Amino acid sequence: MRSRNFVLLINIIHFVFTPPPPTFTPIVMEARNYETVFIVTPVLNESQVQETVEKFTQVLKENSAALLSTEAWGLRKLAYPIQKKTTGYYYCLSFTGEGNIVDVLELAFRRDERIIRFLTTVLDKHAVEYNTRRRNGEMNLQKAAKETEAIAQ
Q: Which residues, 6+ apart, have CB-to-CB distance to 36 below 8 Å?
């Protein structure tokens, strides 16, 4: 009887003097800048390739990602054969979104048999600045200014 009362007393003291557990605060992911380059199989015609690209831009929009740019790099030769193909249509998507958007997009890439390869990278502030300048054409202006200066000399 005594030991039971003692255990009860210890439990009450423990309950009274134990601080409450910390409240759960959800981790809020900040939006990051990403760039995805993917290769579409060369067997498709232009309308099918555009349909494929539109599918992935729609995946980004459905998952609340802001699409910054879509660049078609065109049909290029691969460095080595992939799935017995030596060429492919290259596309580059730049977007801003939460961390889980990459998982959703890459899952869609893996499920689509028209995609040969893909690579998604996180862009740091310098790469974002560079891409913005490149999209606005500032890089070509600097290059043209250097060429005209070299011709003038």
A: 92, 93, 95, 105, 118, 119, 120, 121
Question: Which residues contact residue 44 at a Cβ distance below 8 angstroms, ignoring those fewer than 6 apart?
Answer: 52, 89, 114
Strands of the sheet with 85-97, listed across from one edge: 66-82, 85-97, 32-40, 115-122
Report the distance separating Cα 93 and Cα 57, nearest Å.
8
First to last CA, the chain: 105
Can you give the pTM of this predicted structure?
0.72
Per-10-residue mean pLDDT for the chain, 153 residues long? Answer: 68 70 68 94 93 94 92 93 94 91 93 95 90 82 74 74
Cα distance between residue 48 and residue 51, in whole Å: 5
Tokens in use for 30?
Answer: 């900040």
Helix (H) or strand (E) holding 22, with range, is none
